[in-house]
Amino acid sequence: MVQPSIRWLRLAVGNLLLVLSVLVFAKAFFPYKPFLQGLAQHADYHDGGETPAPAQFEKIVFMLVDALRSDFVFGEHSGFEYTQSLIRSGVAIPFTAHATSPTITMPKIKALTTGSIPGFLDLILNFAESDTTSTLATQDNWLAQIKQSGKKLIMFGDDTWLKLFPGIFERTDGTVSFFVSDFTEVDNNVTRHVAPELLQPDWDAMILHYLGLDHIGHKTGPRSQHMIPKQHEMDGIVKQVYQAIETEEHLKDTLFVLVGDHGMNDGGGHGGSSSGETSAALVFMSPKLKALESKFNAPAVPKDEFTYYRRIEQSDVAPTLTTLLGLPIPKNNLGLFIQDFLPLWNVKDQVKILNTNGRELSRLISASYSDFDRLLGEGKCNGKTGQLDKLACHWHSAVLSSQPSEQMNLFSAFSSECQDILTSAATNYDTDSMLIAIIIGTISLILFTTVWVVDGVPGSGLYKLLFWALSLSYSGMMIASSYVEEEQQYWYWAASGWGIILLIRELQRGETGAKSLILLLLLRLTRRWNQTGQKHAGASDITNTFLTNNPTILWILVFFSYTDMFFRLKRNLDTKTSVFVGPVMSISPVVVSMLFKLSMAALDTRELIPSYLMDLADGFAAVSVVTQAQLVFSIIFLIGTYIVLVRNSGMSGVKVTPLKKLQPFHDLLTIFIATQSRLTNIPLIWFFNVMLLLLDDMNLDSLLQITLTVITMQHVSFFALGNSNAISSVDLSNAYNGVSGFNVGVVGILTFLSNWAGPVLWTSGGVGLMCSWMGRRKRREKSGGIKKENNNSSSSSSSSSSSEGTLTDTYLKFAELMSTFRAVAMVAVMGACMALRMHLFVWTVFSPKYLFAMVWTGAHHIIVDLVVTAGLHYSGR
């Protein structure tokens, strides 16, 4: 038998190694992409002192509307009516700009300004408000080119620009981008600068970054009642800027660009690679563009779901803007000049522009492929069919041609092939470090596996087999992209299978099986509550199809859910000495939380409120929702403090059993999780607690059974609440409850608790199941109705008569089992990412999965499964 001190050491070392492997692999898997230093000069691309093509514009207004999906501007139900009138008149040239994954603000700003394709690591840095390593201070971009030419820039809006471009702006007013509860002030803070700045002649580039539309998407989705009014508001800014360009003399040579950094999916999120997320609106506007004689209909009919007009790459914006402004193309640009604007120049300059774009891209090809310089040096086509040979042949043919039209075609073909090669080139992975990380993770797994070999795990062989079958089959899924995208299906089937096993167990005991049948029915409802994954995302489900169309039924379910929370907490706080403590303490957090959710619905999702509740909702919504949320959290904290310091410490004069000590914490957690969940998911929280009651009544008779239940239901609840392995499924709608301003620590915690609400609840419920199991075991031992298990040498610890020893052994065994599963899963994810690092979907499927696996391991497993569970265990002593 391994001594407890050795077991504690093994548990600590194994999990430290597991976390270390996760971090080492992340550093190797998400490296910074190398880039050329310094700013480009015109002389870099023009031989013999040849002058570049002249500038068409002297100033630029760059208006970025966060999450401006293509249909928001170009579609039939758009609020951008004035913008569409400009498109019809020919002074506005529209495009759909393709945003590569990850569709997150920071990497998309980098793509728009440098013309490069940022690495996936920028997704992580996007959420680090204090990060300075992501700066573009040393990387070429069109803002730096404007600054280098002696001109002035100003910026108002998302402070991500201030982090990316430190010290480049003459005047700024930054706003925090992650405060998604704010639909209005965050944009009003930008708009208040527009009118006075349009009258000022002392700037050459004005950046406006509006956030409200993105916030509406995160909170209430693209079809929200707030969306069209916000589009009208943004269209009003377009009208204000464009009319100033028409009337103000100092703005007559100004190019106005309206652009989205990314789109959004049907749930209002972004970060993934769905067509809605990758399709952003892009419009170039100026009276000068009338000369192009372009003819476009607006609103337009999309070629596919979100492709309106011509589809270009987002990286094409940078070389197009710099050329229109007469500036050198940024060194790390992978984009192509948008040829719709070529007629603004004469034919000779058109050839120069395409030649310059080709030369700039050939520099990057040479930096990546050393043979390319040798092939160019040969000065002729060698007749070979290799990719680089054909590329060099295109260049030689273009240079030697005397026909301008032929030259332009050849330069265009050369640049397009360069772009294809450079954008498809794999990241320079640190495979040695990736292998080391997998080895470290495997060592961690071996340490946890010794629990099974040396200590032994109490329980029948069937449940041991099920544990390893679950762990290994789940790990095997990681090798296929479709399985990763639809992971929820695995857990739904696993939960149903577990329910059938519990049904058979009940029937074998001579019971009716009613509890297992109800459990299976609730599981069926759970899996239909929110459609998730990729294949069926946005399909009909209980939330969108039934509850949204029947708000009365929704609020009945919400009322019963909160009523259940009240009676649970009251029952566990009631004492014989005071008949008022339980009811008073129980009613306050429940009522305040429910009114807070009603107020939030009045502000964000009024369609979910029945008409007869609307006046009540508006009345409570008049009170600051930040204050309401803070009140909920304060009441929960005060009750928790009372439980720890008075009730459970014995100061109240009432003796409380270990299970009674723990149950109020779970009840308070339920109220907190309901507060942090979407309104439509609150009944699902109720169902989870009903399932826990059923499972407790089934008298699970081994820790292994409880652990299998917890692992399975943690994952079922994660997906059932609407999450998936896509970054776009991360829900920020409750990340700012009670927060009056952005605080990365608080918002980070609330974001985690909002998205992992189900797993956290099931971990807490698992502690309750373990306490009930230990209580039954202790009672049976006292009555002589149980014999010590003879399962290797662990039985002495498992059946110790000392309550402290039993508690310690139970927690250790649970922690060891959970760590075993998590190590198996994490090593499998790392192995899949390394093996499939060249896969077509590495950045859209496997990289997001690794990020989610990091959170499952680093946040949920270490903090919740181990640390919080330990605290709950020992608070019940």
TrEMBL record:
Residues 791-803 have a biased composition (Low complexity). SUPFAM superfamilies: Alkaline phosphatase-like. It is a multi-pass membrane protein. Keywords: Endoplasmic reticulum, Glycoprotein, GPI-anchor biosynthesis, Membrane, Transferase, Transmembrane, Transmembrane helix. It is found in: Endoplasmic reticulum membrane. Its main location: endoplasmic reticulum. One of its GO terms (biological process) is GPI anchor biosynthetic process. GO terms for molecular function: CP2 mannose-ethanolamine phosphotransferase activity. GO terms for cellular component: endoplasmic reticulum membrane. Residues 426-872 form the GPI ethanolamine phosphate transferase 2 C-terminal domain. The chain crosses the membrane at residues 434-453, 465-484, 550-567, 579-600, 620-645, 665-688, 703-722, 734-753, 823-844, 850-874. Pathway: Glycolipid biosynthesis; glycosylphosphatidylinositol-anchor biosynthesis. Pfam families: Phosphodiest (PF01663), PIGO_PIGG (PF19316). Residues 780-805 are annotated as: Disordered. Ethanolamine phosphate transferase involved in glycosylphosphatidylinositol-anchor biosynthesis. Transfers ethanolamine phosphate to the GPI second mannose. Belongs to the PIGG/PIGN/PIGO family. PIGG subfamily. This is GPI ethanolamine phosphate transferase 2. The lineage of its organism: Eukaryota, Fungi, Dikarya, Ascomycota, Pezizomycotina. The gene is LAS21_1.
